[in-house]
């Protein structure tokens, strides 16, 4: 039985605290919604856990985390963080030559789920290696003290790429494109099925606001670029190039890349079952 309190409870929305989601989230205002809602900021790995445990109801999460829990989630249509090639913020910094890295030690940012598993696919399936992996706080120099390579994502990768560190750098989006000919989806917007069922109007209101922000940000990127320069650094040219390389759609080409990633992840034993890409709201009523 659903009580009145249950129907009108606060809905929690997870927002990844990296610039790559700004083209969807910039301008998102929970006060404009037809429901009580709160935005919870976090690194992808934190939001992956909070959504899984029901601490939040709807969120941008790692696409890998969606794959792990797709029975409990639905996808908000046509929202993602994807790229058709180089991303500039999914970077493997090499202290040793690649030949040594293949069987060496790699430190991986503890904030990531999709890219750490993409790196395993690249190292093991594409490069025929078998390195040792360890999760670590995203700090390039600390990571490389005791490893041959370090994986950073998001703003951590961007800031590190601007340093004069002297390491060779591989872009995981570019490698995926070279080997598969496909793009890749790194994050999706997922809603818990139980929340979608209990609070259909609230989720509809949140979705409308996200879709409208995305439309507005696509039509005028200037405010996002200005904000990125102010908060993170770099030049307007850098950020225009960065956002040009990303897609926030989730159409047939993005889905093809993600399906192949899930297939490889299963073949390597990183994921258990097949993953269905079920969309809200159709699946709520199925
Ligand atoms: C493009 C990116 O996509 C991301 C990568 C994620 C992951 O590896 O789990 C999760 C969300 C996104 O932040 C990025 O971080 O730069």
UniProtKB/TrEMBL annotation:
Tell me the InterPro entries matching this sequence.
Menaquinone_biosynth (IPR003773), MqnA (IPR030868)
Keywords assigned: Lyase, Menaquinone biosynthesis
Q: Which GO terms describe its biological process?
A: menaquinone biosynthetic process
Q: Pathway of this protein? A: Quinol/quinone metabolism; menaquinone biosynthesis
Q: What is its EC number?
A: 4.2.1.151
Q: What's an example of a GO molecular-function annotation for this chain?
A: hydro-lyase activity
Q: Which reaction does it catalyse?
A: chorismate = 3-[(1-carboxyvinyl)-oxy]benzoate + H2O
Q: Which SUPFAM superfamilies match?
A: Periplasmic binding protein-like II
Annotated function: Catalyzes the dehydration of chorismate into 3-[(1-carboxyvinyl)oxy]benzoate, a step in the biosynthesis of menaquinone (MK, vitamin K2).
Family label = Belongs to the MqnA/MqnD family. MqnA subfamily.
Kindly provide the name given to this protein in its UniProt entry. Chorismate dehydratase
Q: Which organism is it from?
A: Cohnella thailandensis
């Amino acid at each position: 039985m659903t009580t009145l309190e249950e129907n009108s409870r606060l809905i929690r929305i997870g927002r990844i605290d990296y610039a790559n989601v700004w083209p969807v989230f910039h301008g998102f205002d929970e006060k404009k919604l037809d429901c009580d809602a709160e935005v919870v900021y976090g690194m992808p790995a934190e939001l992956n856990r909070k959504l899984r445990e029901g601490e939040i109801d709807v969120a941008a999460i790692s696409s890998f985390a969606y794959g792990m829990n797709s029975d409990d989630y639905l996808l908000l249509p046509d929202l993602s963080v994807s790229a058709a090639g180089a991303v500039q913020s999914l970077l493997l910094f090499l202290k040793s030559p690649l030949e040594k890295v293949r069987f060496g030690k790699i430190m991986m940012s503890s904030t990531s789920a999709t890219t750490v598993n993409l790196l395993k696919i690249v190292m093991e399936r594409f490069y025929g290696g078998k390195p040792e992996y360890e999760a670590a706080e995203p700090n390039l120099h600390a990571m490389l003290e005791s490893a041959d390579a370090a994986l950073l994502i998001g703003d951590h990768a961007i800031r590190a790429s601007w340093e004069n560190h002297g390491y060779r750098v591989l872009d995981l989006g570019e490698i995926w494109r070279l080997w598969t000919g496909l793009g890749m989806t790194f994050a999706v917007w997922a809603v818990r099925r139980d929340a979608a069922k209990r609070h259909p109007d609230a989720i509809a209101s949140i979705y409308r606001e996200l879709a409208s922000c995305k439309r507005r940000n696509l039509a005028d990127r200037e405010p996002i670029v200005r904000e990125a320069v102010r908060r993170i650094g770099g030049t307007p040219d850098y950020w225009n190039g960065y956002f040009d390389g990303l897609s926030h759609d989730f159409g047939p080409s993005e889905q093809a890349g993600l399906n192949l990633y899930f297939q490889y992840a299963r073949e390597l034993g990183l994921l258990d079952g097949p993953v269905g890409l079920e969309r809200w709201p159709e699946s709520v009523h199925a």
